[in-house]
Amino acid sequence: MADPKGFMTTPRQDWPRRPVAERVRDWDEVYVPGALLPIINKQADRCMDCGIPFCHDACPLGNLIPEWNDLVSRDDWRQAADRLHATNNFPEFTGRLCPAPCEAGCVLAINQPAVTIKNVEVAIADQAWELGFTPPRPPDRLSGRTVAVIGSGPTGLAAAQQLTRAGHTVAVYEKDDRLGGLMRYGIPEFKMEKHHLDRRLEQMRAEGTKFRTSTAVGRDVGAAELRARYDAVVIATGATAWRELPVPGRELAGIQQAMEYLPLSNRVCEGDLESSPMSAAGRHVVIVGGGDTGADCLGTAVREGAASVTQLDIYAQPGADRDEDAEPWPTYPKIYRLSAAHEEARDLETAPAADADARLFAASTLRFTGDESGRVRSLHLVEVDAARRPRPGTGRTLPADLVLLALGFSGPDRQDGLVDQLGLAMEPRGTITRDAGFATNVPGVFAAGDAARGQSLIVWAIAEGRAVAAAVDRYLTGSSQLPAPIGPYDRPMTV
């Protein structure tokens, strides 16, 4: 603990964002470049070294947060990078994309603003790359065992890196033309520039991991054939089967799933397209769904030049403070949060009729209506109570030339045939069944990440990848020294 009074003398200060008017004109990350390092040492000093760090339990990776906070406060970036990478393969991803449940579990957060754990994490990760503290770590010797990992999202990449470093020969199969899963084509550039992903992939290649892009297992290569070719298979395809909105008018043109819309803007940033064929430019956009994917659509539509953008959230507007009875510390509370995209929408007044920023809370879609050509023109909604029952007399109509459905995901997409060709057992909710060792009903086949857990956070995805790697290593060799931070049935802290 570098400064015993740091939490009393230093106020919380977050990484400042660039001015809204500036950042909405480009796709660069929203934060002021170089503005984090001058403040991060004093922010790390706010860590209380509390003795019972609940931030550990709040983070499924078990990040050693007080240790690397202390090291950052002393400017010891090498040791901080070592402690950070001891539990997290990709801290530059989580430091940008994770909603930071660790901060909700910070002991300081009982009665003060939490330590800026997420900012400290990303500062360490970026400094580690800048100062050369992240060299490839190829294995000393090979085991002679082979593993196929299906899916190159955070779970698949974490599993592949751990297994490669353990000496196994690993090939990652990705159905898209580029690696990264939703980090590549689902996360907008303004949340994470893709050079962070490309840099980590180059490290993995140098360590010996093989990658096979544009290869959908079940379609381009048979799932049974793949299983016969490798000693073990890890299914980490994610939960990409999106949820639908079965209301009248859903068949109208201009109503798209969020994951049909977001990849196109990412392809524009990659240089594949000059402009998105689903661009929101000049359109009245309504986003149905109040989660992070909806916020990603919001920030994207603003940058594309939408005439208006409104986001519908079926839940009531949360308060600014934690409800100590319903969601006591150290659980992750549902409070009003202003993401960068919502800040932009608020300042630019993209949705004049919204309750706050661009959001309409407690709003449920009733139906869509369109024009003579069959294109959507209006969305009809109603206000609902806590039980989602319509409130009489609260019906409204919003102009809508483009509607984006961001309602979450139910499990892995089965269209490629992977699940059926292997004969995998499935849970009623649409996820892959597995036992306490991450193993499916098919010998030698393991399932991890959202494909088996269901839709979750990036920290859980990476933790699953690390844990399934330990399970596969044990299956192949009889024992394992790889860390397993979670089990398949672990869940976030709740009341």
UniProtKB/TrEMBL annotation:
**Which pathway features in its UniProt record?**
Amino-acid biosynthesis
* Matches recorded under SUPFAM superfamilies: alpha-helical ferredoxin, Nucleotide-binding domain
Annotated keywords: Amino-acid biosynthesis, Glutamate biosynthesis, Oxidoreductase
Query: What are the 4Fe-4S ferredoxin-type domain coordinates in residue numbering?
Result: 36-69
Q: Which InterPro entries match?
A: 4Fe4S_Fe-S-bd, DPD_II, FAD/NAD-bd_sf, FAD/NAD-binding_dom, Glut_synth_ssu1, Glutamate_Synthase, Helical_ferredxn
Q: Which NCBIfam families match?
A: GOGAT_sm_gam
The record's section on PANTHER family has: GLUTAMATE SYNTHASE [NADPH] SMALL CHAIN
Task: Please report the name of this protein according to its UniProt entry.
Answer: Glutamate synthase subunit beta
Originating species:
Streptomyces longisporus
